[in-house]
Design goal:
The complex is a heterodimer of chains A (about 120) and B (about 110). Chain A has about 120 residues and is mostly beta strands. In chain A, strands 2, 4, 5, 6, 9, 10 and 11 form a seven-stranded mixed sheet that branches. In chain A, strands 1-3-8-7 form a four-stranded antiparallel sheet, with no helix packed on it. In chain A, a hairpin with a 2-residue loop joins strand 7 and strand 8. In chain A, about 35% of the residues are buried. Chain B has a five-stranded mixed sheet, with no helix packed on it. The chains are: A mainly beta (about 120), B mainly beta (about 110).
Chain lengths: ~120, ~110
């Protein structure tokens, strides 16, 4: 149980285009989903937290107009990188949590974004 | 936001027990401790979670002393496939998480 999927697993796009990444909890309902980014050989950095039906909460320094997050249902959250630039190239990982804040986060497999 | 501190790297021979300690001095009363394993270009995989004393599952044990200011992940008889980065995460009442540097474990044949 507790499986989280992400799609696509990798994407290459041109500078200036927008890219959407989907995160799904496959066998549980996720009241909260999280988005992280990870640069090579570095730790995960939390970008934003989203609760179903509510606006996402962004961490300091993360541009909410650039990284659009939608959590439309209890099993799906999307991250859209708008007007992507090469510096946005990174490994994006989502996680999902079922209930309370002490419940375990389960992570997706990640999406490798490369912006040319 | 309490931070976690772990050793940056560790080496171990196959078949040995590995203990990785995480410091979390500012842990709060309701916080839980969770350990994850991450392979390159993959999302972190849940290993074990605990609140106090000792927790054991099929793959690991987690030891938490009474003051809860640290925790130790114990991996019995590691194999080459256990080479990965291990993160301890303190779960806050709320949505604040801090992933430290993690510990890069290399298992040597």
């Amino acid at each position: 149980g507790a499986v989280v999927s992400q799609h696509p697993s990798w994407v290459i796009c041109k500078s200036g285009t927008s890219v959407k990444i989907e995160c799904r909890s496959l066998d549980f309902q996720a009241t909260t989903m999280f988005w992280y980014r990870q640069f090579p050989k570095q730790s995960l950095m939390l970008m934003a937290t989203s609760n179903e039906g509510s606006k996402a909460t962004y961490e300091q320094g993360v541009e909410k107009d650039k990284f659009l997050i939608n959590h439309a249902s209890l099993t799906l959250s999307t991250l859209t990188v708008t007007s992507a630039h090469p510096e946005d190239s990174s490994f994006y990982i989502c996680s999902a949590r079922e209930g309370s804040s002490t419940d375990t986060q389960y992570f997706g497999p990640g999406t490798r974004l490369t912006v040319l | 936001l309490a931070k976690t501190t772990q050793p940056i790297s560790m080496d171990s021979y196959e078949g040995q027990e590995v203990n990785i300690t995480c410091s979390h001095n500012n842990i709060a009363t309701n916080d839980y401790i969770t350990w994850y394993q991450q392979f390159p270009s993959q999302g972190p995989r849940f290993i074990i979670q605990g609140y106090k004393t000792k927790v054991t599952n099929e793959v690991a044990s987690l030891f938490i002393p009474a003051d809860r200011k640290s925790s130790t992940l114990s991996l019995p008889r590691v194999s080459l496939s256990d080479t990965a980065v291990y993160y301890c995460l303190v779960s806050y009442t709320g949505n604040q998480f801090y992933f430290g540097t993690g510990t890069s474990l290399t298992v040597i044949p």
